[in-house]
Design a protein that fits this description.
This protein is an alpha+beta fold. It is about 25% helix and about 25% strand. The N terminus and C terminus are likely disordered. The protein has 27 helices and 60 strands. Helix 10 packs parallel to helix 21. Strand 42 and strand 43 form a beta hairpin.
Amino acid sequence: MVVLKMIPYTVNIKLAARTLTGTLNLQNKPAVDWGWQGLIAQGCHSSILIIDPKTTQTIQVLERHKATVVKVKWSRENYHHSLSSPYSLRLASGDASGKIIVWDVVSGTAHCEIQEHSKPIQDLEWLWNQDASRDLLLAVHPPNYIVLWNGDTGTKLWKKSYAENILSFSFDPFDPSNMALLTSEGIVFINDFTPAKPPGSTGKKVYIASPHASPAHNKPAPAPTAPAPTGAKKALNKVKVLITNEKPTAEAVTLNDCLQLSYLPSKRNHMLLLYPREILILDLELSQTVGVVAIERSGVPFTQVIPCAQRDALYCLHENGCITLRVCRSTTAPDEAADPEQSSQELVYDLRSQCDAIRVTKTVRPYRMVICPVSENSAGLTVSDGRVMLWELKAHTGRLPTNPGSSLSPLYSPVSFCGAPLANNQKRIQELSLNTMISQTLIAGEAPPPSSSQQEVQLKFLLTGLLSGLPLPPFAIRMCPPLTTKNINHYQPLLAVGTSNGSVLVYNLTSGLLHKELSVHSCEVRGIEWVSLTSFLSFATSTPNNMGMVRNELQHVDLPTGRCFAFRGERGTDEPAIEMIKVSHLKQYLVVVFRDKPLELWDIRTGTLLREMAKNFPTVTALEWSPSHNLKSLKKKQMAAREAMARQTVSDAEPSTVESSVISMMQDAESKSETSQAISAREHFVFTDTDGQVYHITVEGNAVKDGARIPPDGSMGSIACIAWKGDTLVLGDVDGNLNFWDLKARLSRGIPTHRGWVKKIRFAPGKGNQKLLVMYTDGVEVWDTKEVQMVSSMRIGRNVNYRVLDIDWCTSDKVVLASDDGCIRVLEMAMKSASYRMDEQDLTDPVWCPYLLLPRASFTLKAFLLLQPWSGTFTMDISQVDYNEKDEIKGLIQEQLNSLSNDMKSVLQDPELSLLQRCLLVSRLFGDESDLQFWSVASHYLQSFAQARLLSVPTAEALQHDVGQPGCHGYLDICHDTLCESGYFQKFQLDRVHLQEVKRSSYEHTKKCADQLLLLGQTDRAVQLLLETSADNSSYYCDSLKACLVTTITSSGPSQSTIKLVATNMIANGKLAEGVQLLCLIDKAADACRYLQTYGEWNRAAWLAKVRLNPAESSDVLKRWAEHLCSPQVNQKSKAMLVLLSLGCFHKVGEMLHSMRYFDRAALFIEACLKCGVMEANDSTNILLSLIGAAFVDYARLLRSLGLREGAALWASRAGGPGEQLMEELFQGEGGTPEGLTPANQETGPGVSGEEGDEDRKFAIVEE
């Protein structure tokens, strides 16, 4: 055998350290998360798996936790990425002992470790909402603490305790100062959350009455004509009121069986509560249920729900592992035939798609579901047996035959792609994300789109990936024979794993993937021995009967064909159990050792029994074959004999042909002997009996000879195992002693390890490699037998928390251990459980994940995709671009490009794809949350302002255009809240207040509804509500007067000034809401907004401006809000930019981007503005030119620093004056500027964007 290192560059046999994982622990149930980075993290016992959902591969296993992992959370990507804050894979994980580790996933190392208490972490979340720091991590430490940590340094920023036990929390996605804690008794709402200091108040506590225990608020009995309510409807009637501020009485409340609470990211101020049999949608302004998804009595209960942001839809997981998608029904005017009560009174979520359930057993249960946050159209399901199932939502266009009874309104596919209307022959990917598959839910009063332009879609789940783990332990493992110079061309590092259900799994350790699963036995596999690189013997024993007899199965398995046969034929039905099987070094002979029966000796090549030992044969306790044999001398003798024979045969032939015929004869003879395997070499084995005496036996052909015996060593107990390599023989006993024999020097040396029974010992492969792996009941050690000293050690409880079940070497310097936590680990000899570097791995399928590249390379890749076409051609080959970089890095970037799907490549190379669409698409590909949000809003408003200009509508009114006819690209999704068009936003708010009105069930609710209606300007409806107040209510008089006031308000001067005076006094005396209402009554909503802003109610002011003010006034209010957001104490400039985008202040946005040093975004944004023609309106050309020049030059410098010279030259040439110096630097010593790139080439400076051809020329840059 030859050590690997002697044969360089032939085969990649450098196995990465890795962990093959199996079934999950119950505590791992909540530990799974799908990040913006596109990867899934999952806790498995104390390890964390990183899975790529597109190719279904485990690409990293993180090991450092000592206890079971209970929570994992990817950091958010909601910040502008640059070389100083690059794309990085950062993950936080919490375990059952209260430790939190923040990981750098690519290198597999820990950034920091955090420990506060020693109880399991209940919840974890990265804060994503402010521009200052991305390192803040909020954790719930049981029983009742929330602690804010700096996840980069591990320092504690603050800690706050609450009265009840906290189960989980949820942040309001629209207002980061709001969060809700789910406690053991109810919900605590906190509205003053800030990273700077712990919340001051204890929060507003509300109790949840169980949905089925609110008898006081049932509806009056339906009139006899109406049909009796069934199932789901009955549930609706029961949950009229759910949330109370007093603690419910004992009989009214069952235990708080609320499983989960989450804010809805698709619309503001809505929250869902999950119960096993229903999902409640609450409107938080009224603390009132406005929608229920109930399960019929025979249905399968819910275990988890994930609300979507892109559309008002819910992914629900049921107890049988079925995932369902429910989409909110449009509230447009119902058909007359439909049940009128149903149509207006509820938010209804219709079931649109469901996937297949799994077979649930005692050990197999669905655990958790995760949704891809970027696309929201793929789901992953973790199962307790270690499986991960990946489902993708597919859209089928065109009408499918529906059953006539179904009342579902059709879903339509949107007519735009990546935020812009589709060009005639433009390529698109329909399944890019949820919002490219189905269009928005319509709201009341909105005209449905003309059916001609839209296609109906049906949604279906498709299983696109399945990752399965190891079965339950125990395992028997055996590595295939080692690599040698002879087998190097076809060697595969295969590991055979025998399992408790009788199957044998064969893993390829280069990729860590399952190579074959073979069902070989009917009971637990006890041992495996390879007889060649592609075949092995395995044995299994059934449970003993009352006589102590078992059924032995010894099977010979051929891997390529999967053929198995019983090696011992008919034998094995009723006999003592097989203890072990041992194959000789030349794979000629097999010894089978039984518990209370003499051993058998077999010839493997012919499958014949050579000898069954006599009854008086000693009982064997340990046995090993000797590595020495006489094969070489036999082969020499045979060769000589053959040559002599060949010479005799050809002595009469003509001399000229002698040479060639001798050779052919010898080859002939050789091949014959190969096939008949006539040679039987002599081999030896040694074994010990119960007294410790060592026997030596020789086998040659079918002759078996007894050799020398060595008396027992007094210092050793009963011998448990033997290993033999070269001139070293090692014996291990049941008391933990190791005895090293040097056969050449005839010396023996005993070492007591004091670790109890030596279970197994194995020598490492490779010539002259004398390392020895020793397994004890409590762990493993590696010894160097040359020096007779221990190299490394691992002990349960000290450095690991699992028990080792079986051991082997997989290469000359790596060991493989099977353990009782269901994992098999490949470790370095030092046996430190090490996570590996992801970029050193050999993956079977290439993985698209720019986060794996070096920061520079990931930005080059981004620029390469954004700046297509390069020199006028669209390309996916980085080598076609002028890019100075090491070939290795170029290769890695090209690998990333190659791993993109063909659909994606064709869309990226489509000349019809506009710059805005490209920016959106690339931000999606990179999972860049901040980019995606910016470009979504920017592309929407750039297009709507450009369209308004073409129609020469004044800009302010562009925002107000009649909601019946949206721009050809629709509205901005309502999940953008106050960034939406005013008209659309107003309609949405009216729709919402209508629903609140229908659902109100107490005076409090009615009062809130009336207030909202007054602010929205719906005075008639408000008066009706005010007049409903009953005479015995303390506010009866007030409300009646208010109703009179509202109806009699005239716009005469005196009444206006009086009311204004009263309003300002009220506001000054702390009655802000009442004062604002009065101002709205007299159409002084602009003043009202100003007061709201003065008193810090910025969100409320923005809301009011959107629903009540004309465009010019509204714009002033929102601009003040943007200034406030930019102030250092708020530091939400990215939010401010979105507000300015919605107002069309594009020049200001360009300046902000540039001043914040977001050079790439600034340059691309300004370019997009020029293309849309929305940037030279009222700016003096000089200011505009200087901004363009500065932005383009800085971007050119950035591209130069990445090594993209061609791109840098192009942007520098377009920057006018400021770019000239950079052009000179770029082309020093190359004969000046290349032709065609001089600024003079541009018509009249970059402010003019002329014909298409001109743009194409300007835009010929790309990053790799």
